[in-house]
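Worked example

This section walks through a single chain of length 402. The input is the sequence exactly as stored; nothing has been trimmed or padded.
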Amino acid sequence: MKYELSSIDFVGRRTKYYTTTWRDVSKQIFKSPNFGSEINRTSYYKNDLTTILANTTSDIDKVGAIFQYVKSKVKWNGNYNKYVDKGVRKAYKEGVGNVADINLMLTSMLRSAGLNSNPVIVSTKANGVPLFPTLDGFNYVISMVEFTDNTYVLLDASEPFSLPNILPVRALNWNGRKVTKDGNSSWVKLTTSKLSKEDNNVMIKITEDLNVAGLIRTKYSNLKALSFRRDNNQIKEESLISKLENNYGIEIDNYKLNNAIKINKPISRTIKFNSEDLVEGINEKLYIEPLLFFTKKTNPFKLKERKFPVEFDAPFVTKNTVSIQIPEGYKVETLPESLAIGLPENLGVFKYQVSQRGSKINTVAILQFNNAIIAPVYYEALKEFYGQMVKKQSEKIVLVKM
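Given that input, the structure is written out below as tokens.
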């Protein structure tokens, strides 16, 4: 529990309110010389803005051009705050600033371009969830642009790999609060409706000595791509390969990554590999987990009950497709049966199918969550959901010698 000053009431003086209502909070934040005044500063970028907008024809073009310019012009120093540190003018000149330096600058430039832009104050995940009017409950700020068709985009120029309406994980904490100079204030949902996507496609062949040679093609989109770039773009390829080899139990012969810095495109990765650990031979039978190294082996939800929501970073979908070439001299004895299960209120779904087509066994597994926050009332259903999914994935393909 945290406390902060709500009002001052001295005898004989008018009561001064700070955080009694969200309107008070909004006005108080804008009164700060380190917030509202910084948005009103425009002279330092005026000439550059003319150049930035030279080839734009629509509001969307303007948003994209200004957003990309600010991201490249000013780098984030790693500090959170809803108030500026150096101030927008100095941050612009030096090319570095905190979150507020960058995103209040962005808001100002968007306004100067004729767009309806306002700041949105945010509490990062480590800072908690503000439920009542508060000044201290927010430690981060992003920018919002509203259009005439009642749509909007959220922007965070402190994150070089972000896109409109795809914020970094640090800012995805329930809702933010749009604040305006006149005191109007409203909640803004921070999570995007765009599913965070991971798509894995694996093809393998089994040799006579039960080794496996295969190919993995992976595609990351939206928040998954942002997070991958942020976590891995500064890491040497050798280290990435070593990590994958340890996690998957494979030896990588070739590794190729595309679109690591082209943020408008999904990341694609191709891996050629071999392994001695994916097939088990017992009494002339072969036992194989249909999803290989993508098999979920444990249920992460072990508590008997839960009083707080389960939070994912964003709504997401993970699709794993595995194709296994049946080795010569073997035939299928057993395949796991199909499964399709869902959570209440269309919160999530799991679909699983293993089938034979000619000399290949194809497995398709899709896990999708349509909401980033699962309320405690659904915890028991979520625990059972994951339990069934883990149990199903543990069932093995059995091949027998002909």
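What to look for: The mean pLDDT is 95.
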